[in-house]
Amino acid sequence: MKRLIFLFIAVVTIISCSIEEDYNTFIVTNNSSEEIYIAFDFDNSVISSFEDSSLESSRVIQSMSSSLFSVDESVFSGNTDLTLIIISKDVYDTNSWQDIVDNQLFDERYDLTLSELRELNNEIVYN
Questions:
Q1: At a CB cut-off of 8 Å and minimum separation 6, what does 86 contact?
Q2: What are the pLDDT digits (tens) for 35-64?
Q3: How far apart are the C-alpha atoms of 36 and 86, rounded to whole Å?
């Protein structure tokens, strides 16, 4: 419970800090009982061309926690979509990136415009 309170305070503090107007933030919340790995790109719905960002520990979200991401709002120019995939950490750790992509071993996939992301209150929740 203390961890959830700390997380809530941290998220509120980060969001309430003044972020330059040309940046958009979004939160990915993991309500599942296992760690998840996320990968995302803009205006690129072809998952096979995503980089394997395995060195980015910020892409791993612990069970029952959230991560905040800040992106330059210009990446949403026009009708650009955010494509985000969620993969269980177990699947990520036991398969090659190529196998994950080729066999679509991801748990969730989102293709969202900026307005659709805002309709979700800039939060993607994984259960």
A1: 28, 36, 37, 38, 106, 107, 108, 109, 126
A2: 999 988 887 767 766 666 554 666 889 999
A3: 7
Nearest to 126 by CA among 4, 28, 11: 28
**Token pair recorded at residue 86:** 């969620």
C-alpha to C-alpha distance for 93 and 73, rounded to whole angstroms: 32
Show the tokens assigned to 18: 């003044």
Tokens encoding 32? 């599942």
Tell me which amino acid residue 109 is.
R
Q: In Å, how far are 8, 54, 96, 107 from 113, measured between CA atoms?
A: 26, 25, 29, 20
What pTM value is reported for the model? Answer: 0.74
